[in-house]
Design brief:
Strand order of the largest sheet: 2-3-4-1-5
Oligomer: single chain
Number of helices: 20
Order of helices and strands: HHHEHEHEHHEHHEHEHHEHHHHHHHH
Helix content: 40-55%
Structural class: alpha/beta
Number of strands: 7
Radius of gyration: 30 Å
Distance between the termini: 87 Å
Length: about 425
C-alpha cells in the first residue's frame, strides 16, 4: 500500500496546505497554474511542504506527460530516454519533467537539460532543498522562475491531519467509534517542524497501532510515541508561551548564560523559531544596546542563519546569539531615551521645529526664514558647533543618559571634548 501522504495527495490548489504566499488568491504561482502557461520552474524549500504535490497538480492541469526523476540516481541517459518520447503518442502535448534534488546533478548533467528547455518541448520543474543560487547552474537558473516553499504552519498541518484521520477511519471502518483528542493532533502538527509528510506518517503509525477490538482512541500519549517527541507545555497563545519568553529575556538581561540556554531549549523544542528570533533582536538593542552596539549586527546574522537553516540546525546560531547577549555588557540607555521622548510627545506640547532647522530646499524658504541661521557642523572644527536642535518648549530637556559601560563612557568623554573645544573656540 502507498504511504498515506501519497494516497491523500491533494488534486487541486485549494486542497494544498500552506504556501499561501505562492498559492493564495492572486499570488503569482497560482495565476501561472490557472493560466495554464507553465514556464520552467525551480521549487526551493524543505522536505514535505508540497513541492511534488504542486508539480502533480500542474501536470494534471496541462495534460502534459509527467516524468519523475531523482537527481541522486538519474543520469543523462534518463533524460535522453524521456526526450525520445517527444512528438510521439506517448507525449502528444509535451513532457513535464519533475526533477527532484537537482543539486545532485553536476554541471554537465544540468547542461543536458538546456536544449529541451529552450525549444519548449520539455517543461522542467526542478526541486531542491538547497539554495538554488548556490547549487543550480546559472544557465538553468536564467531559464527558470524560482519559487521558495516554506515550512507549513502547525495550524495548516492540523487541517491536513484532520482530513487524513477521517480518511484513515473510513479505510479501517471505525469512523463511528474513533475519538481523537485535540492535543494529539496539535502535538503531531507542532512536532513535525513544518513537514506535512512527517506529520501524516506519524498519524498513520498511530492508526496502525490501534489494537483490534479496543475502543479506537488517539490521545496525546500515542501522538508522543509516534512523533518520538514529548509534548511540551507550551501554548503559543497562552500564559506558558509568554512565561518562557519572559524568563528567557530576564535570564539574558541578568547575564546568566546557563538559564538563557535552558529557556532557549524549551522554545527550540516547541519549534517556535519566530518568537525566538524576534525576542533576540529586541534584546540586542533593549538590554545590551550601546554597551556593545555590534551585538545587534551579530544577532541579526545569527537570526538570518537560523531562519535559512531551519530546525534542527537553527538551534546552533540561536544559541550563539543567546550566549553572546547573556555574556555581553548591558545598557538600557537607548530604550530609556526613546521612552522618555515618547512620553513627552504623548503628554506635553513640545513645540514646533526650530526655524533654523526647517527645510530650506525649495524656493521661497528664505522669505520664511527657514534654515537661514543654520550652521552645518561639517564646516566647523571637529565637525561640531553648539546650536539649538530641540524645540523651544523643551530646549533643555535631556533624554539620553550615558550608560556606565566602557563604550558609552568613551562616547561621553568624546562629547565633552567636542563641546569643550567649541566653547574654547568661542563657537557657541
Amino acid at each position: 500500500m502507498k504511504p498515506l501522504a501519497d494516497r491523500l495527495r491533494p488534486a487541486s490548489i485549494d486542497d494544498v496546505v500552506g504556501q499561501q504566499h505562492l498559492l493564495g488568491k492572486g499570488k503569482l504561482l497560482r495565476r501561472i497554474i490557472e493560466n495554464n502557461e507553465i514556464p520552467n520552474m525551480i521549487f526551493y524549500g524543505p522536505s514535505g511542504v508540497g513541492k511534488t504535490t504542486v508539480a502533480n497538480i500542474i501536470a494534471a492541469r496541462t495534460g502534459k506527460t509527467l516524468h519523475r526523476l531523482n537527481a541522486t540516481t538519474a543520469s543523462v541517459s534518463d533524460i535522453k530516454n524521456i526526450a525520445a518520447t517527444l512528438d510521439t503518442f506517448l507525449a502528444p502535448d509535451g513532457v513535464l519533467l519533475y526533477l527532484d534534488e537537482i543539486q545532485h546533478f553536476n554541471k554537465k548533467q544540468q547542461q543536458s537539460l538546456l536544449e529541451f528547455m529552450e525549444n519548449g518541448k520539455i517543461t522542467l520543474i526542478a526541486s531542491t532543498t538547497e539554495n538554488p543560487y548556490f547549487y543550480v547552474y546559472n544557465a538553468v537558473l536564467s531559464r527558470s522562475i524560482v519559487f521558495e516553499f516554506k515550512p507549513v504552519p502547525p495550524s495548516e498541518i492540523e487541517r491536513a491531519l484532520e482530513r487524513a484521520a477521517s480518511a484513515l477511519a473510513d479505510e479501517m471502518h471505525i469512523s463511528d467509534k474513533l475519538r481523537i483528542e485535540p492535543d494529539a493532533v496539535r502535538h503531531l502538527a507542532e512536532s513535525s517542524n513544518g513537514d506535512v509528510r512527517k506529520a501524516l506518517n506519524s498519524l498513520e503509525a498511530v492508526f496502525l497501532a490501534l489494537a483490534p477490538g479496543d475502543e479506537p482512541v488517539i490521545d496525546l500519549d500515542a501522538a508522543e510515541q509516534a512523533a518520538q517527541k514529548k509534548a511540551i507545555r507550551y501554548d503559543k497563545d497562552g500564559d506558558s508561551h509568554y512565561d518562557i519568553l519572559s524568563a528567557f529575556q530576564k535570564s539574558i538581561r541578568g547575564s546568566d548564560p546557563d538559564a538563557a540556554v535552558h529557556y532557549l531549549a524549551r522554545l527550540v523544542s516547541a519549534g517556535d523559531i519566530q518568537s525566538i528570533c524576534r525576542r533576540l533582536l529586541v534584546m540586542a538593542s533593549e538590554d545590551v544596546g550601546l554597551a556593545y552596539p555590534m551585538a545587534a549586527v551579530i544577532v541579526k546574522a545569527c537570526v538570518d542563519s537560523a531562519l535559512q537553516l531551519g530546525f534542527p540546525e537553527a538551534r546552533i546560531p540561536l544559541a550563539e546569539a543567546a550566549i553572546l547577549l547573556a555574556t555581553a555588557p548591558k545598557s538600557n540607555s537607548a530604550i530609556s531615551a526613546i521612552g522618555a521622548a515618547m512620553r513627552d510627545i504623548e503628554t506635553i506640547d513640545t513645540g514646533d521645529v526650530p526655524v533654523h532647522l526647517k527645510d530650506s530646499h525649495y524656493s521661497g524658504s528664505a522669505k520664511l526664514g527657514h534654515g537661514t541661521d543654520y550652521v552645518n557642523p561639517h564646516s566647523m572644527p571637529n565637525h561640531y558647533i553648539k546650536q539649538q536642535y530641540l524645540p523651544d518648549n523643551i530646549k533643555d530637556r535631556v533624554y539620553y543618559e550615558f550608560g556606565n559601560n566602557k563604550t558609552e563612557l568613551a562616547a561621553r568623554e568624546y562629547q565633552k571634548r567636542l563641546r569643550g573645544s567649541a566653547n574654547n573656540g568661542k563657537d557657541s
